[in-house]
What we know:
Elements: E1 2-5, E2 8-12, E3 23-30, E4 57-60, E5 63-65, E6 88-95, H1 114-142, E7 168-171, E8 178-181, E9 186-187, E10 192-196, E11 209-212, E12 215-216, E13 221-222, E14 229-239, E15 243-255, E16 258-261, E17 271-272, E18 278-279, H2 283-296, H3 305-326, H4 341-346, H5 350-364, H6 366-376, H7 380-386, H8 389-405, H9 412-433, H10 437-442, H11 450-456
Parallel strand pairs: 4-6, 8-15, 16-18
Antiparallel strand pairs: 1-2, 3-6, 4-5, 7-10, 9-13, 11-12, 11-14, 14-15, 16-17
Amino acid sequence: MEFYHLGKLINETPFDISRSDYSVNVELIVFQFQKGRNSKGISALYKRVHDNALFPLVYVNNNLFNNVMLFDPDLLRRKKSSDTLAQIIGHVLIRSESSDIEFNSDRTNFVENGLTKSLTNDLRSLNELIQTKGAELKKELKKDSKLYPTGKAFPEAELCENEIKVASILIDRKKHTKFHIPSSQIGLDDYIFQVRDSKGERVDKSRVSITINDEESSSRVLNSIEEPKEVIVRYRYKDELTGLVSVEVILSFEKKVSNISGKVLGNSLFTLPSAAEYKIRLETVSDLIYAIDKAYSTKKRDEYLPLIACSIRAIFEISADKVLKKQKQLISMLDVKKFTSTTKREIPDSLSKNVVQIMTLVNKNSKLRTRISEVLDISYGTFSNLIDVRNIKLGVKLSHVGAHQSTRFLSKPKIEECADACGFFAAVCDVLVHLDKDELSALHIVKVSENDINQQFEN
């Protein structure tokens, strides 16, 4: 490592990284703000979004890595400020051709393995050494002056004026990368913060080519996205001296989901593809949802999975029972002897029969579907697609088997699948229970027959 002050080399300190399958190149500038001075004049690119503190940018194989913790200037905050260098900007360049360089889904952290763990530890050690050694040098510089002499940081140029630099495309980190569907059109030029060529000069954005999922974009605009997906936008600039520089941005598009709840809580296990949260008015169901969410949000949630499965089954039972008692005029007395052998196998108990009958009733009556979708603030098309009788019946089965076979059967994906079906069913039942007789009469609802139930399990 080389430390420069006022353009002069003042110290060389050795540092070895622990592996040979990656390299780290660091160029940093350390600030010492005098009284009345601050970081206002420094580019927003080097300021953390959540607190505006300075930090260096990290690049992995020329791609900006949006992680402020990997080389955190606040690493030594607990020490005296005179023993650290917290006001740092610059670039941390990581290069590796190893396949073990993997990222999580939103590319904000590494997938932990031997290589990435070693790299993270090396960066931490390097960060600590730079700050502690730099703080020592800072104290030495102050010996002959009450103030730290500040000024030019980079070494004086010893090369010719036409020194070749690294061409770069910098992405604006403050731009959103996650959207709800259907999305608006997105101007892709807006994600380019700055482009510089190998001479250090700014390059117009129009000289950067843009591809969307490897297809050239002549309009430089992403059309509205209507289905959940990820879109890879790649920005490429070919410098006349150093060649190609390429960076990518991953845009995620997902359904808008809102909590199903009766109490204030953060993210719920029970959600709807709705623009607004739906509050369950059936108090017992509301209390159970709240309790399940509290248990599922703890670090020891695996220990609570059998309890959660039992509670989900209870929500199915209570919701169905409320509809059967409150809206008796809608419910037929079905003769199970008229069920086919397939139907009898699919709905072997009274709870499964009640759940299937209620969902078949909603599915059979389009005006009723319209009214429920309006109350839940879900589009009619989306709501109709959610009425998958077999899927909801499977949720009942999962809750039953999970409750009886305990952790040998339960898993996080199964619990979430079960909660999806249960939450939707509970919301539908909650709406049904609270529809008054005059409103129901105006909907001209046709009751469910045994044949309707049998048809759900044909093919």
